[in-house]
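> @MW can you paste both from yesterday?
MW: sure, first one:
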Amino acid sequence: MASFGYGWPKILSPKLHKESLSLEDEVFFPFDLVVDEHRNKLALLYEDRVVFWTTGRIRVVTGKLSVSRYKEKGSVRGCCFRYDGSRFAILLERSYLLIYKLEPFHAPPGRSSWFDFVSSSEGNNQEKESQSTIKCVGEYILPTLLIEKDICTSEEECILACKSCPSGVIVVNSSLKLFCISWEGEIFWQTSFWKLFSSDTSIGEIGEAERFVCLDYHSGTDLCGLTLNPPGIALLVKFGDGGRSAPEIDDTFILRENDASYIALEPQQCLAAVGLKSGLVEIYNTNVFLTGQSVCLRSLSLDILYLSVSDTGGVESLQWTSDGNCIAVGYEKAGVVVWSAIGHCLFHSFSSCGHSTEEIRQISTTIEEMHEQLGRMDPSSSISRATEKESFKEGYLFRQIKAVCWGPFGYSLFVLGSIDYTRDQLEGYSRVPFLLFEFSFLKTGFSKGSCQNEATRSFLLGADFFVSEDDAMIHYPHMVSSKKKLMQHVEAPYEYILNNWPLRSISSNDDKSYVAVSGKHGVAIYSARLKRWRLFGDVVEERMINCCSLCWYGRSIIIGNEISIQNRKSYRYELLIFPRDSLYLSAIQAQIPLEGAPLLLDTRRDGYVLVFADDLQLRLYKLESDYSKTPWTYSRLWTFHITVEAPLASPRRITKWRSTGTFVSSVRLYPKLSYGNDVPHQVLLLKSTGSLILLDISNGISVPLLRMVHSFWFHHTDCLPVGTISSPPLAIWAVAEDGIYCMFDSIWTHLDNESLTTTQSPSTIVSNCRFVTHKWFQGDLNVYPLGFIEFGGFLTGICPLQSGFVTVVFDGVHCRLPCFGIQIERQEFVSKLFLCWLGDETLEDMQCLKWMESFSEWKQFENYLERCLYELLIQVESRRNEQSLLSNEETCELEGMELFPLTSSLTSFSMNEEYALDRFMRLLKYFGEYEDVIVGCARKMDHKYWNLLFSYVGEPCLLFENCCLTGRLSTAAAFLKVIQEWWDLQVAVIHAWKLLQCCLKEGRVDIAEQVAVFLDRTVVEGIVSIPEFEIREEEKRLLENGVGSDHRTAYSLNALLLQNLGNCLERMQWRQALDISMSFGISLADYWKGIESRFHYQSLAHLLLSLHESFQWPFPSSDMVHKKWSRIGADILVSNDEQVLAKLYEWKNITFVPCEKFNKSEKCYQMIRQQLQYLTGNAFAARQWELVLCGLTMLLGCEELWILLNLHSDLVSSYIECLEVTHVKGYATLASKWHT
């Protein structure tokens, strides 16, 4: 139910054909935008003419209407379309009315003068040429003057504002007179502004200053919003009979008495948005004629963007989307912001940060790539790769805003504003030029409201494509980095979009394998596995489908269809069920007639289909589905009429209705899953006013659950072990104005692990259940919640993102355009679920442990436990501090001192924190992550909570010792920082020394290296000394000869490393010895040279096999030996012995850098080979000939072996014997080569 901007704005500039314009030309100075009721025609107002634009797939100027011949009547002050779009009224400044008839017109082969205006962002030339042959009949319009009439009563009067209504045009003049003029020029009524107020009403001083009036009218409610400046009064006026009857005193209600500058009405949710000169936007309830008082529901402030009224100015323009879910706000000085109905900031045109020239270059490249994917490049605006013009005011796209206007279905926003030019270029013009911009938007998948399932919530819908949150999202928060993630989307087929633009509805099945979208006619189905679309096989059949709603049922798609009869003067409705693999009328599985337009659908797996129609009827159908037979049989089980004070106004065709607040946003069958064969009689109903209601059809009882709810969804029982009858009763998520609520169905707690009796049906249970509601997350106005992802336990939402500006050149003038996008924000909720279980004193420990353990396979399980412990500690400590302050209140020496409770804002549901923390500590010991959770939580929280933490788990030194004994050395290393803070650095060094010894003993050289760095730092700083230990004479002699790490300043540390290195070599733990040598910079060659005694091995064969086992090196085959030996040939007689030996000597200095082009297994092989070469090279430098022979044998260095054995002939017999003893075929082949 929200719209999010992406990409950069398009500049819709009126250029003269084959001529260049300067910014001084009058075409750059429009002053207002007006759109018709269906948002198909856009009028751009100038002082002496009006230019008409299309709002469809391609932006084209369809006509021009000049009023220059009425120059003596003044300039254009306002205009409006008739409700059916067939007529257009222009009011000139001196109260002169012109009414034109707008007729569809074919474009001539040679465009006439009014077609010289074209868009600078129509797309690429190829698309223009292809589209020029398929212009529909009504694309261009021909204005024909019907009526011209002078409506002034005095020469001093002038027009201030006008707005169309079903009866005609409502006009306000400078004398503050209101009158309604029919489309035939007849004045229905006329009244004075003062007659709308009683004598005791105070509206302040109006005076004779220049006045500004704003009007907004909606025929569905016959309400007109009006603001008058000065003094800034905002009021609602009720008209009768579609504006034909004059309002009286009782028909007027004042919303605000000062500071108001603009007003916009939203009838579906009974809202009126009032823009203030202070920059705020206040949302009021328009049902004031029943309540008798104006209620400001919320205030939309730019404080969340850290902007003030001095930056943006007052509100200059407002407009709601056609579905009432979003409102666009244009500010006087700079900026456009789009808000959701409940106050989320969905889009803004302010920069979040500045960028250097290099970053701008990378950003512009990224945007070009993104628009190439979308096919929306703007060839008329060249992006500057580098610009020296950096004199822009930081953070603004627009210098001024004149008007904002939504396109059809909320996919585009038109903004009339001035570009942020460089200061040196702007100073050369006498007036600030204004241009028409178009912003592209994506809508959430559930914004249409017809699809009710949870899977569709993760989709975003564009005008001709959709984006899935699970697969890819418009996500480039780090656009300047090399790892950019651009928008990946699925485009609807061109054959479908051509005649059915834009997409209006989207629905996904539960596993997201199939996605259905609908436009003007028909349906298109996308297979995520095959990545292919399926369309109607017959275009005639496709045009017979006017989709009102979409929903999936198993392998079938349910379409709510509207059929027009008698020249579209009446309609009939039906549900059509098609198999997903066959979109033909002959393949229909069921056809269900309906009495009203099906606005909302919901299905259950057991065949129940809930339909809510615009006749306020809820109908439940049961499908007897058999995929082997068609048609399916169905039956209507019950019908329920939702009682309201007046009939509902269909969102698709506005009808008259007197009462407000009767729209229904969502209906769902409850419970979601089926239990037994009982017919469901419970429905969750969300009204557009925000009331969430549980409706029991069987007895007609409705139970209010929450207020100010924007959307809700069921918990996904397929992806989390909660939400069914055999697990905790997590049932519903609800997005409210102040946060996200989780609702538990408490009746299921008593039925856990029990079966339902035959006398107590689930329907009876649910009707008597009591929901327990918890507020788990505070409202974040920058993040719009979507739902939760199917893995990881995260709530997901979208927030607007703007990465920076790019500099473009437009008509020779440098200006800046920002790139817009959205990014995903996630909040985990599993820790909140743990807190609920832990705080439930009626729940047994073992059952709570069982439920918590069901998440143990998740990668984030340890983080969930840490978060849960973190919140419990903060809550318990805050509660104790609060109690301590309250107990000391009487002894406070300062009189009148106020004491404020130190409550935690992490959770908003009540529980016994002490009990929950005690239970958590008991249950935590059952998990293997016990010490990991303790140390992870301790290192992430403030030290003031450590006393409470360690009072439960014991001293950190004891936990450290336990980790060392159980071999959990990485956890023990994490405790060093805690021990240092808990005690002092000397105690931490003692434990670090012990940990270093354990790491070297267990072969964890990676941890030992980090601990050694910690010990070195303490020695260098001279804070503490490393504990002494017994050093053997052999290590002392090595240290005296300079053997050891050059980077280790501690004598004891070097001795310990040399001692462990020697032990590894004696035990033939070659990999561990190499790790110590490479990690700590100890040369193996120097070590071997420094020791007096020579290493004695049991046998050469034993040494060779130990190397194979240690390095996991495969034995060679006979073919490999033949291949290697054949390379020697006769060349061995002329080989340079010195070159070969020098190569062996260089191996001891080899660097371990795997080649990037290799895969994972190849990189592993390469690293082990380099380690063998390193070991062989060091052994060669130290004259460890047995080790050199074994290393060369494993590497199959036949040439090196030949030369080495020729130099040491005494080793030949033992070497050949070694090869034969191994009983390896490859080595036996190598031995035979030496025999021959």
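MW: second:
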Amino acid sequence: MKDSLPPINLVHLDENDASLSTQTDIDAKMDGRTSYEPCPYQRSDAEEHANSNDSSKNINHTNTNSNHDIHNSGSKSNTSDANDDEETMSLFWTWFDAKVSELDSTYYWGMEANQTRSKTRTSGNPNVRKCGTFQKASIESPGALLNQHAIQSDLLNFVDGLNTENSGSMDSLCKLAIHLLKLDSQEEYNEGFDENIIKPMVDILITLERNIFCVFSFEITNVDSVLRICESLVDQLIAKTITNSRSKLSLLRSKGAAKQEATLHEMAQLCHTWIGFSEQFIRGLEVPFVQKQKSISDSEYILGFEGTQRLLRLLFARGKLAECQGNIEDASQLYEQCKSILLECTKHNTHMHVSIPIRCQYDNCISLESIQQKLSDQQTSEYVTTTSKMLENKDYNGVIGLLKDYVTEPQEDTSRSNPTEICEILLMLGKAYVKNGEFTKAWDCYARTLELAVDNIVAYGSLHTTLESLLPKEEDTEFFELLKMINSSVKKLAELAFQKDINDSMWRSIELSPSFKKALVTVIQMTILYVYRHSDFIALISRYETPESVPHSPSSITKANPFNDTVMQVWVLLSILMHVELENIPVYEAELATSLSTLLKDLHEELGEREICGAGDGIFLKHLLKALPKSEDAEECASLYQCYHCLYGLLLAPDSENIQDHNAVHKDIDQKSAESLFDLVKDAALEKLNRNVPLKNDVKIAIDILFELFNVIPSNAFRAQFNARIVNNYLSGNIVPKPSVEELIETARLPTRPDSPEISHISPVYFKIFWIRGRTLRINTKNRAKSNLERSIDDLKEAIVLFTNHIYLCPNDFYGWYDLALCFSQLAEEILVYSTARLPSYKNEIAQYQKKAFLAFVRAWYLANEYNLKFSDSTLFELYAHFGELVFSMTGSPMNMEAFKTTSVSRFTLADGKVRIVADPEMGKKLAYKLVIKLFSKALKYDSPDDSHWKCHYMIGKCSSKLELRPQEVLGHYRLACNHAISRPRQQENVESTREAIYTLCSALAKYLYTEKIQAQDVEKYFSGIPSLLANNSLFDEISASSSNYFDGICSIVSRATPTPVYQLPFGSESTEDISAAELEHQYTCLKKLSVEKIMAYKIIYDRLTELRRIDKRSLHHRPIFRQACINFYILGNARQAKKDMLSLFNFRSNTKLLVNIWKSDYERPGKHYEYICEYTLFLIKIAKASKDVECLDLLAKKLNKSQDILATDKEKYLKTCNSFLIDLTQE
């Protein structure tokens, strides 16, 4: 590539540097159309000089590709020799390198202001185009005359005449101007005067307009002079219009734009006035004859041969005036009249010249060829205007019908066609094809536009190198127009390719022609030269050479260069075409795809250093997000995260230091763009959430961003709206009791209609984002500290809304219903814990959440069975276990079946026609407990993720106890629970579960032994095989010794015939206080029912409870304390020891307003805390009454008045009981 980019060797020309002939030749290429050949009837010295180097070389303006159906205007290349083509490209690269060298931090190619002339409209008529196409003549400089001797003599005679007449200064000046115009009109002075002489003379006559009619006569030469004035004025108007158009294209746009428009309007009016004078002189009439159509023969008869020439000049001047003002219709009519006259004259008058030269700066020849070209230009302009209006009205079929034949049929004369307008027509036709879905034809249009644009800029640049000239950078508007053509075509091609998948059928019907490939490679080379030769970018590369280099950043002007868009778009186009090509090379696809990905990443780094990677509306970054491979590799992810940062300003990388700030203009990410981000993080998010792991770092940030865009179900998701009504009705219904599980599951059959992105035409992100966001909130709530209950409640309510939205879209999604059930259940638990002291106020709300959780669980159960879904064992275990825990919580205290209550009724029509209203049945406690047993029994069939089978046996034992099943069955499940809990790994959580299982077994054994449902020897049998938690520990021996002393003393009391006042505290207490008579009586009453065997059985239970207390380092477990107090009070009759145990659970001596000092364990049922407080308070009152402890009752009464952790109704009941006991004890 470097070989094709020769070093710069051009001379920059300012306005006064070059010779007039060379500059005039360049202006001829600049001021009118974009063809770079002079008029066929007059050749310039510059071209003669250029052609003298190689007479066979001709600049290639346009290239017609035979492989395409679209043939465009423009001259075909006459060069088939490869050496000539290489030489042309070498000349072009020399010129383009010079144009790049002009760029710096204060200047850029301002093609964004380049509104092509076909798009510039007058303010009055939207169908009028401002400034037509004009060919500037090449005139020899400086005004040379073929017969200077004769003209000098004529002027001397004229001066003598003025001296003789002795006229005034005004008259003399006016006569001089008229005389010079007469001389300029005479044929013997072929070349005429220079415009620098004619223009001042015309200005004089305009200034002295009031004296014109007194000095003019109706001689034929005066008519020619007036015509010459008209033509000069029209030339000036054209020059001013072009200058005004240039100011719009130039970076140095004039601040007086309105003033310039006013000047143009005045100039146009002046042209109309003088053209009116010309008409009067030609016809000798007072009104213009052109207002009424005359036949050609009549005009010839009236005017004669010379009159016909003057008529043609007049019509041609009027046509140029109309064209300059943008009046296409009038200009076309006038040129048609000129064509008709020329055809008629050529037909009937063989002596009539085919070509009439006129002394004008612009379009200085009237011939059939020039008129035909003018008509062709007007037709093209009319097509552009009409097409623009049709596109605005979305009449795409009309556009195709209008332009299809125009661009496919060869034009009569393409030597002077305006490629800018041809490109615009092709672009509009391509747009119409895109709107109609004909993408292959649209591609052909855009590809042909690129070929035409590249051919023209190569021809333009090589011509400048040949002439060894370079226009001032701010005046080279033709260069801007050519860049604009390239930018527009590349943009359309890139956008069309970007929106098509590489497997789309469009690519199979597209054949890339050699000319297109050549044009594409040329643009790629232009971008490379631009990126590495721009002076403001070179400083970025060189700054790393020395450590003390000052950091450099491209200027805002450099970053605003519209060619940056072209750089991005053409590389996107190349990358997509290469990916499409790779599909046809499966053998090397992987290797080449990796190389291409590496190239794109390196290119992003290079462009990012220059801070232009976001140009072109970020199309390059968007393409990278689609093209780069998606993987969990850190390097690949970093490349994608870099793209997201440059494009949207998102910091997704866990380590933000890996993200470079390319200072790109960040865009607001929209839903369409966010879909690729969702695809990038979706799998990682689902994998973590399925393992109940909270989202962190990049994945969490991405999901939060996505949810901001997809937080509401679109209004066009009609199936979701239909499903919402069904789901809401289902969740607001009542729980219908069914005798069998199968019938219960059938109640969850819903007539919903699943939705999909294809059905509702909404983003696929909606079908996962609500579930992902909802589960994230639920997991975070589950792992959050219990001290922040209010926030947890708010998050759970939000999660419920999210899961509900997910179910509206996916009503048959098991996980959606399962997570919704868990959220309702967890919310009920949190509120139950939060509102313990105010339970009556929240009980109905809690019941509603529990009921909805129950219905959601049933629906999830139904889906798991109905669709034979394959789930992991852990998922099914958790489904049945969580459902069972919910039903158990709904059934037991403190909710006590509240959620199962119903107010609905059923109406039956009897035989006599009367309607009978019957309340719907409610689920009873026995049926609820049986359902819990079935659920945990099903859970036992699956592997538990954390070896939680112990809890299934634990809950089955609880429900069996509630159903009053055989003690052996209940105790058997409790013993299995202990075995499973002990077999778990020795972690803190598992130690807690072991403690809970052993305590439950101890409690059940104590109750059954007390009620004589089991024998004393059964206790040791059920504890066999359950190792001590303090085995191989010195505490075990200490507990055993202390317990033996205590129970041996009790056994000795029981074995005596009469009660002896012996009081012995457990655990070797040294207290020797005497027992009161009441305490002795209570103790005797209890002990006389016991046998030594029972006492030893209670000792085993008592020792196990003591072990549980000793290993409880954090004093979280109050149940062993309470159970030992119950054994001491109810069984052993030791009220004093029972009171001592219970007082450790109360806050009598502290200033806290909490009555009881107990904590909620991990396995405590929601709301059970409140039940424990009630139980402990009543038990302490009972102990105090039995022991006649007035002080204890008094302290309890005072504490109850301040307490905030019990219900007001219970507080009143407890106070009444305490006061009653206090009165009785005081009286005694």
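> thanks! The chain has a mean pLDDT of 76.
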